[in-house]
Amino acid sequence: MDKSAYHRDTWVEVDLDAIRHNVKTMNHHLKDKEVMAVVKADAYGHGEIEVAEAALESGATRLAVAVLDEGLRLRQKFPDIPILVMGWTDPKYVALAAQHNITLTTFQSDWIKQASSYLNDEHLNVHLKVDTGMGRIGIRSVEEAYDVIKACKHTNIFITGVFTHFATADEPGNHYYSQQIAAFKQWLIQVKRYLQENIVIHIGNTAAAMRFPDDMFDAVRFGIGMYGLYPSKFVSENVSLHLKQAFSLYSRLIHVKRINKGDAISYGKTYVADQDEWIGTIPIGYGDGWIRKLQNFQVLIHGKKLPIVGRICMDQCMIRLDHPYEIGTSVTLIGSDQTGVVSMDDVADYLETINYEIPCILGKRIPRYYIN
């Protein structure tokens, strides 16, 4: 990314070598199965083009996204790589997908009938989504599968893959996971003979691929792990794969001042100094996705953890300093600094959410710079 296009001292660094390491690690773990790099939501906020390029360089063979627009952007850069849209696509856009050789997801016979009416000579590839227990989208019975397969007859729509998604692969215990995979295998026994040969079967997300590599079929959808983040604390503690976090968030002090005991900071006077203190201001706020609930969260300056005080503003927030620092001093909000570390999980735990959400909500006002 061109640094001259941004004029604010807050930025993200994405370590593409970490992405490459994580893809190679998963490839080695899986041995003979394909890695489908999941780059939806702008590669979980990391940057779809740059991450996809690094993943493909390192052994990924396919890309997966959530919506057609994401697939179209990637197709401009990667003309020959298989791209799967995993979400629902309006049938009126199927010709556009077919023209760009983008594979869509289907799970409704009526969708097939509508989609075929929008195709002329174009051939559309689809993957059939099976709901084995996630309860989100997908066919839920063999009969529904037969209806979809039958609807494809005498059309230019071809089923080239099938997949499901596990709801609890990142949690302790295997009972529900085992139920889901058993249901999928039973479904496949009854349906596969009606499908063309050499279809791609993919059932594994990061958690399932890490924990149960021998259960995976032809490919796995490598999402959160590709970014160096574990799907859950349980997985990180019980799987021996070493991943490298790719995402770091930095800012710089733009103002440093001394305040007196009793002085208040930010809206609502929610922070009042109980002694004379040094306060620093950095240019990041909830307008960037650094949300107000992060008040009192600790960031790093020169390896020391220092708290955010007062309410976080739309564009700025304040830090209680241990002593005066120079204007321009670097502040690490996510990442490592000397001996200190603030991980994505630290932020997620503080916000009582999951690590997936954090890079996704950090917005476009924060530029992403790529480190090789």
TrEMBL record:
The keyword Isomerase appears for this protein: yes
Binding annotation for substrate: 136, 314
Pfam family, one: Ala_racemase_C
Catalytic class of the enzyme: isomerase
Keyword flag Isomerase: yes
Molecular-function annotations in GO: alanine racemase activity; pyridoxal phosphate binding
Cofactor(s) this protein cannot do without: pyridoxal 5'-phosphate
GO cellular component: cytosol
Pathway: Amino-acid biosynthesis; D-alanine biosynthesis; D-alanine from L-alanine: step 1/1
Keyword vocabulary terms for this entry: Isomerase, Pyridoxal phosphate
Record-annotated active site: 40 (proton acceptor), 267 (proton acceptor)
Residues recorded as bearing N6-(pyridoxal phosphate)lysine in the entry: 40
Domain Alanine racemase C-terminal: 246-371
CDD domains, per database record: PLPDE_III_AR
Catalyzed reaction equations: L-alanine = D-alanine
Gene Ontology biological process: D-alanine biosynthetic process; peptidoglycan biosynthetic process
SMART domains listed in its UniProt record: Ala_racemase_C (SM01005)
The protein's Enzyme Commission number: 5.1.1.1
InterPro entries per record: Ala_racemase, Ala_racemase/Decarboxylase_C, Ala_racemase_C, Ala_racemase_N, Ala_racemase_pyridoxalP-BS, PLP-binding_barrel
Highest taxon above the source species: Bacteria
Family stated for the protein in its record: Belongs to the alanine racemase family.
Designated name of the protein: Alanine racemase
